[in-house]
């Protein structure tokens, strides 16, 4: 979609009644100063992705080529920091972030993070089978207001879904913990076996007749009602 069209649609706002998919931009570029990660992540134990990136770059075969080099570390580097924009009504079904832990900060708008209340073997098995259509028997909801930061720890399989209540801009990044490297390897092996359970760009409007997502959103919103 051309940038001018995106800007125009953002200015016009998203009407849930017109059945047009809300905009969900997952890879915005940063212009100006990049956001500061939570202070705890400055601890060297959480700088494993940076170390992996440096090692990949250092071991890249050297070719006598002009111009900018391209190397396999780009994927790891890109995961360190990201910028997201979503219009209200955007919904991302249950997924697991890859490669590992994630922090996100809501700059403006309202976002709802939805987690299953339990994460036992039976629930994970159902999630493996149903993916983003999975509806847990019970959920926990976290509403992120402007300025709120959410951290999901590394080395754990944490299925979660996300609902945008108001147009929202978020920043964040991914990290690993060198003290939990074995757990992280196990998680990556699980992701390799279930690649379809990673984050995909899933955009659904609340008004669409998709039973699973609508039921999940209704549960999430009901939990937030007084």
List the helices and strands and how they pair.
Elements: H1 3-12, E1 24-25, H2 48-58, H3 74-78, E2 82-86, E3 91-95, E4 101-116, H4 121-130, E5 139-144, E6 149-152, E7 160-175, H5 181-193, H6 211-224
Distance between the termini: 40 Å
Mean pLDDT score: 78
Number of domains: 1
CATH architectural category = Sandwich
Determine the oligomeric state from the structure. single chain
Radius of gyration, CA atoms, in whole angstroms = 19 Å
Summarize the amount of helix as a percent range.
25-40%
Please indicate the percent range of residues in DSSP E strands (runs of 2 or more). 15-25%
**pLDDT < 50 runs, ≥5 residues:** 70-74, 200-211
Sheet with most strands: 7 strands, antiparallel
CATH superfamily, by name, is: Cupin
The CATH topology? Jelly Rolls
Please give the count of helices: 6
Count of extended strands: 7
CATH level 1 name: Mainly Beta
Give the SSE order as H and E letters: HEHHEEEHEEEHH
- Structural class of the helix and strand makeup? alpha+beta
Short description:
By secondary structure, the chain is an alpha+beta fold.
Overview of this protein structure:
By secondary structure, the chain is an alpha+beta fold. The termini are far apart. It is globular. The chain has a single domain (35-60, 73-224), classed as Sandwich (Jelly Rolls). It contains six helices and seven strands. The relative contact order is 0.22. Strands 1, 2, 3, 4, 5, 6 and 7 form a seven-stranded antiparallel β-sheet that branches. It comes from Hirsutella minnesotensis 3608. This is JmjC domain-containing protein.
């Amino acid at each position: 979609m051309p940038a001018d069209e995106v800007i125009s649609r953002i200015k016009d706002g998203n009407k849930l009644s017109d059945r047009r998919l809300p905009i969900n931009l997952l890879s915005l570029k940063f212009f100006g100063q990049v956001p500061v990660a939570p202070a705890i992540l400055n601890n060297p134990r959480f700088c494993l992705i940076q170390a992996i990136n440096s090692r990949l770059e250092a071991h890249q075969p050297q070719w006598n080529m002009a111009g900018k080099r391209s190397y396999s570390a780009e994927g790891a580097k890109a995961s360190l920091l990201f910028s997201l924009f979503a219009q209200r009504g955007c919904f991302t079904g249950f997924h697991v972030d890859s490669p590992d832990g994630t922090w996100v900060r809501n700059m403006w708008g309202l976002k709802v993070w939805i987690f299953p209340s339990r994460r036992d073997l039976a629930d994970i098995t159902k999630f493996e089978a149903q993916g983003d259509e999975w509806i847990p028997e019970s959920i926990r909801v976290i509403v992120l207001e402007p300025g709120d930061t959410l951290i999901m720890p590394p080395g754990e399989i944490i299925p979660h879904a996300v609902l945008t209540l108001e147009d929202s801009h978020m920043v964040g990044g991914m990290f690993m913990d060198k003290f939990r490297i074995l757990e992280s390897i196990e998680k990556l092996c699980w992701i390799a076996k279930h690649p379809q359970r990673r984050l995909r760009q899933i955009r659904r409007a609340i008004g669409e007749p998709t039973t699973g997502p609508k039921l999940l959103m209704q549960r999430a919103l009901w939990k937030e009602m007084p």
